Amino acid sequence: MLHEIQDSRLLPARPIQTGLLDSTYENVLEHMDSGVMLFDEEGSLTFLNARAYGMLELQRYELSGCTIVDILTHLSLSRTKKRQLLKVYRETVYKGKSICEFMDEYGRYWEVNASYGADMNGSYLFTIKEVSDYKKIEQTAYQNDNLAMLGKLSASIAHEIRNPLTAIRGFIQLLRPHLQGLGKEEYAKIILAEIDRANDIIHEFLSSSKPSSPQTRIASISALLKEVILLTESEVLMKGCQIDLQSLPGDLYVSVDVKQMKQVLINMIRNALEAISDRLDGTTGKIELGARREGSEVRILISDNGKGMDACTMNRLFSQFFTTKENGTGLGLSVSDRIVKNHGGRISVTSRVNEGTSFVISLPLINGLTS
């Protein structure tokens, strides 16, 4: 690629002549939040502002008298920066594009605008600005479009599949005594279980696309955790695990949709059970629930000694459709995260491979209601 650059007009070296610019305009350019680089018709760098050489992580004197070739081969310029500059050169000077975007080594997005032609008297003006915030907005809009599409798909699935499944389930129930007489009752059990699983998947799609608004009431954290343990205890024991409720420092009260919060907690307990069952060293499975007050919040803890997760998995844990389960939908935790956020709370997670995972649900307390 360098031979292409050497064949271009950006060749001879000449010291930067900032005196060519009016001092007032130069002062404005110097303090812009965008990087500015100006090459003259002979390819020499005639001006760059503080933002520009800061982006290159070089000092101004190190770029004095440089051409584009000099910059690309500069010993103090990192290899990553050289690749980025080379991409900008290819897209703008070589291919003639006026805009080029790239992501740097820190995960930030940058947009480079190139101006040249007859109006520039042969000069090349490059302005570089960070567009990370715009990218986030763009990604959010894209996600919202996906959610809207998901809503339509979910409604269609519910209408076209749920009703036939209900009918099939009813007929299987009617046939169950005949299958039992033939010694084939396990067939009925399998069919009913698979129908229920299909209905659960449909329910998760509907919940993720349009979760209902919380119907809040004042609830006791202690009562909520005790009820969740009662609802899940049989399932936990069947899998050879144990679930313990840590002693609570007095009762704490929150304003929540109890049904939705139960859904969140039960989902996390079932995830913990799967993580424990995936551990291969024979460790006895243990799940702990607890709560404590932190300032104006209550922190609900759900921890297990399952297989744990690596950092890559944790980073994507609440993303829709991301799952590590063979038959998972990737919707359970994303729905849970949205439910907690709708209550003005948040979910955090810590985990280590082969040591276990801890989820913490933080919710605002009701002032004055503690015992």
Gist?
With 371 residues, this protein is an alpha+beta fold. 47% of the residues lie in helices and 22% in strands.
Task: Give structural notes.
Keywords: ATP-binding, Kinase, Nucleotide-binding, Phosphoprotein, Transferase, Two-component regulatory system. It catalyses: ATP + protein L-histidine = ADP + protein N-phospho-L-histidine. Residues 21-65 form the PAS domain. Residues 156-367 form the Histidine kinase domain. There is one protein chain. The chain is an alpha+beta fold and 371 residues long. It has three domains: 2-130, 2-Layer Sandwich (Beta-Lactamase), CATH 3.30.450; 136-209; 217-370, 2-Layer Sandwich (Heat Shock Protein 90), CATH 3.30.565. 47% of the residues lie in helices and 22% in strands. It is built from twelve helices and twelve strands. The chain has helices at 2-6, 23-30, 50-55, 60-63, 68-72, 79-94, 132-181, 185-209, 221-238, 258-277, 311-315, 332-342, and strands spanning 35-39, 45-48, 99-103, 109-115, 124-130, 217-220, 242-245, 252-256, 286-294, 297-304, 346-352, 356-370. β3 and β4 form a beta hairpin. α7 packs antiparallel against α8 (185-209), α9 runs parallel beside α10 (258-277) and α10 (258-277) packs antiparallel against α12. The longest helix is centred in the middle third of the chain and has 50 residues, at 132-181. It is elongated, with a radius of gyration of 31 Å. The relative contact order is 0.07. The model is unreliable at 1-6 and 8-16 (pLDDT under 50).
